[in-house]
Amino acid sequence: MISLTNIEKVYRTSTIETLALNNINLHIGQGEFASIMGPSGCGKSTLLNIIGLLDAPSKGSISVGGQPVTSYSDQEMARLRNQRLGFIFQSFHLINDLSVLDNVEIPLLYRKQISAAQRRQMAQEALERVGLSNRVKHFPKQLSGGQKQRVAIARAIVGRPEIILADEPTGNLDSVMGNEILSILQGLNNDGATIVMVTHDEAMAKKTHRLIRLFDGTMVGDTTLTLC
């Protein structure tokens, strides 16, 4: 589904050059639930951003569904992200002045073929999926951390993406809330979504299908996991 070939990412300033990713070759298959682990600063989030087409590699190529996308224009990349990818962030990135329902609708605003009534219906269905149908009129400041993350998941899945990318989705939550979020992700994966998750939590990672390890920007492990 997503293939990265000979990916290199270099960050440059006037005096310093930092190699963030070095010769990454990675294929994420349809229906996989893969986790990415490694110490802070090893390139996990950079890799996730490149998989999600939020950042461009310095070298190498990317394909999605067998289609090379490295040379896509910014507009083509944005359309692909909106139609096929969903993003979940550690810090939620909700808009405090918007209701829960309005926050979830945001990705659909860029799909001009979807009417306002359809957007509202799809957002309500996404919130029901994550157990928040009774919070549609609340605002983010009225929610717990776990509820905010569930809103963020609803926003990520409202457009029914094939691929969900999650950057430390349980990092700001206690273990109980973290397990609830992981359970939601597992349910989405069971329904066919491909998921790539960055995490520092070994126990969480071992509940996925595959564990990819990074160290200093290099892939040092890629293990298929046997789930109990």
UniProtKB/TrEMBL annotation:
Residues 2-227 form the ABC transporter domain. One of its GO terms (molecular function) is transmembrane transporter activity. SMART domains: AAA. Keywords: ATP-binding, Nucleotide-binding, Translocase, Transport. The keyword RNA-binding does not apply. InterPro entries: AAA+_ATPase (IPR003593), ABC_transporter-like_ATP-bd (IPR003439), ABC_transporter-like_CS (IPR017871), MacB-like_ATP-bd (IPR017911), P-loop_NTPase (IPR027417). GO terms for cellular component: membrane protein complex. The keyword Cell cycle does not apply. Belongs to the ABC transporter superfamily. Macrolide exporter (TC 3.A.1.122) family. PANTHER family: CELL DIVISION ATP-BINDING PROTEIN FTSE, LIPOPROTEIN-RELEASING SYSTEM ATP-BINDING PROTEIN LOLD. This is Macrolide ABC transporter ATP-binding protein. It comes from Arsenicibacter rosenii.
